[in-house]
Amino acid sequence: MDSTRSNRATAERPSYVASTVPNGVVTSANAYRPIKFGVMLTCLYVFVIVSRVLDVSPIWWLHLPMLLLLLLLLLTALRSQFGITFSSKIALYFAALTAWVVACWPLSQWRAASLGPVIEQVQAFAIFVIVVQMIRTAADWRRLAGTYAYAIFAAGLLAFYINRSVENGRLALANGSHADPNEFALAIVVGLPFWWYKANAATGAKKLLWLLCTVPLFMTLARTGSRSGLFALAALLFVTFLLGQGARKILIGIGTVVLVIAAGFFLPDYLKARYFTIFSPPEDAQLDIRGQNHLQSDISSSEGRKALLIQSIRMTFEHPLFGVGPGVFSFASWDERKASGRPAGLAQVTHNTYTQISSETGFPGLILFIVTLFLAIRYTLTDYRAAARADNVELAKKARYLLESFAGLSVGIFFLSIGYSHTLAVMFAFAVSLRNIAQESTVPSQAGSTPGVRAPSQAPALTPSARSRRSRPTYLGSRGRA
């Protein structure tokens, strides 16, 4: 009897032997236990950089985001499981893009001006590696998605209290990247699906509460007066409609109509007229002189952006290999306009991330960027389809809402220059983490509760038919409630 108890106790103890995980990395079960402190710190850091709350706080001078980043880099280095990160093609292409941006720096037309964007790109890649390293389970992915949702909600609420009025009533935060209404609008569009994900995973009153949390976000988005944000939202709703089924499509259609009607009632006349400039330049007699002047400025701005787009494309072909240098387009384009005898105006960015990358880092940079974005969307779509076929509801939810965010992002960046920003890095990391979770969920776990780790080979021999079934990949239910 004593020997039986001993054998039972031995069997119940978790085995911490080396195991081969789906990504081909040999590690131990201990290494796969989530580092709770690291996950918590990662969520805190993402909240800070997405919400930009410290940009409008009295302690902005403490540089807390940089301190958090350094601590996370230390934790990531101590974990030293970089094989998991770089087993993804997304990581390899994003690393190559970062290396190419750094390589373009010495050849920049103005190296001092390129230093800032180069540092931003390196920092963005560091954020990418941190998130992929730390977010390794379905539960941790859910926590980070919730953090992103809360961050956008905090920024939306702050805009009503700590804001600056841009161009006759457009809403934006007082400082930081969200001080640009267009970047602020895109951040809200990208964050909306994470609230829908939370609502979809909830039940009862909590589901209704999470949906109501999107109301102030839609109000803030409308008050930004961002036409690029409107295009991004249209792309988001279109993909959401495509991925919806049955009654969901009807709700999306009704919700869109309600949003349009509500905007017509509650938006100021100037913002309504500004949105209508997408279709034609209106002559709105209801606007005062100041509003009319701002509206004419908006129309001129649209024409100016078209000219910048054409100039950035031409500059790409003039400097096809290394571009003019990261972050240098605004200065190079100003010099070009002045040299040609045209009015130079202000030094402005491309207002298009794709041509920003191409004109500043050449065709190699553009190719690396497009491939990285394409792979992130493709892998997410593949995970969604595989999870849907396998009836893995939790994984399918994650992939579906991430796809919706990518839809808004990929359209929104056509009107903004955010090529070296953390926004892209975090979204790429979401896609890689989801792919790792999907791959680990295909491996039956026999080593206790440790996800993605197989026990030593002591299982009984399989019959040919069982071996055939075993060889086919299956998407098992994710651990943790999503």
Strand order of the largest sheet: 1-2
Total of DSSP H or I helical runs spanning 4+ residues: 19
Helix content: 55-70%
| Major beta-sheet overview | 2 strands, antiparallel
Output the helix-strand order.
Answer: HEEHHHHHHEEHHHHHHHHHHHH
Notes on the structure:
The protein is mainly alpha-helical and 482 residues long. The chain has one domain (33-164, 179-442). Helices cover 66% and strands 3% of the residues. It has 19 helices and four strands. The protein has helices spanning 2-12, 36-51, 64-79, 82-86, 89-104, 111-134, 138-158, 181-201, 204-212, 214-223, 227-243, 247-266, 269-276, 289-318, 329-339, 353-389, 393-412, 422-441, 464-471; strands at residues 18-20, 26-28, 163-166, 170-173. Strands 1-2 form a two-stranded antiparallel ribbon. Strand 3 (163-166) and strand 4 (170-173) form a beta hairpin. Helix 8 (181-201) runs antiparallel to helix 17 (393-412). It is globular. The two termini are 43 Å apart. Residues 1-34 and 444-482 have low confidence and may be disordered.
Summarize the structure.
This protein is mainly alpha-helical. It contains 19 helices and four strands. The strands form two sheets. A two-stranded antiparallel sheet has the order 1-2. It has a two-stranded antiparallel sheet with strand order 3-4.
Provide the descriptors you would attach to this structure in a database record.
19 helices, globular, two-stranded antiparallel ribbon, 4 strands, mainly alpha
